[in-house]
Design a protein that fits this description.
The chain is of the alpha/beta class. Helix content is 24%, strand content 29%. It has two domains: 3-79, no CATH class; 83-167, Lyase, Ornithine Decarboxylase, Chain A, domain 1. Helix 2 (52-63) links the parallel strand 1 and strand 2 (69-73). The longest helix has 20 residues, at 6-25.
């Protein structure tokens, strides 16, 4: 869930809040209401991050006066930007006008581009401040057509044996 989905979340909690109020009024000893998870981070240009103050205000409006704990499963909100994948470059080759950079991992290790279309950031660890010098296709080592981390990616000079970091992959 990102910022633009808060209105739908608020609407869904209206129905859930009514149900919780009926249960409490009927004497059911509720201790916790779990509103689930799905709190996300932007993966694409133009997406707005979740406004946590607005999110908390929605929870407080629906459940704050009921004396119940509100359980939340924040998931990706906490982990997406916390992870880092390090991979060794095992191939750099030019074929049919395209330079391919091949790390020693594939979509089975990190499938954000395949599943979510997430454009990754790449840092050649030995040259972290280097500017992009070329555009490349980053292809995994599984040897399947969908095993791509990115196409037409701005990339600094890179050689076999370099370590490449892909940040913000904790999800």
């Amino acid at each position: 869930m990102l910022d633009d989905e808060l209105a739908a979340f608020d609407e869904a909690l209206s129905a859930a809040g009514l149900m919780v109020r009926r249960l409490v009024a009927a004497g059911c000893p509720l201790e916790e209401v779990n509103v689930g998870g799905g709190l996300g981070t932007p993966l694409h240009e133009g997406e707005r991050p979740l406004d946590l103050d607005a999110y908390a205000a929605i929870l407080a409006r629906h459940f704050g006066d009921l004396g119940v704990a509100v359980g939340v499963e924040p998931g990706e909100l906490l982990t997406n930007e916390a992870g880092l994948l390090l991979a060794e470059v095992v191939t750099v080759e030019r074929r049919m006008g395209t330079t391919f950079v091949g790390p020693d991992c594939g979509w089975n290790v990190m499938n954000d581009h395949l599943i979510y279309g997430h454009d990754l950031e790449y840092v050649v660890c030995g040259r972290a401040g280097a500017s992009p010098a070329q555009r490349v296709t980053v292809a995994g080592h599984i040897n399947e057509g969908d095993d791509l981390f990115g196409e037409d990616v701005p990339f600094p000079e890179v050689a076999e044996g370099d370590i490449v970091a892909m940040p913000s992959l904790g999800g």
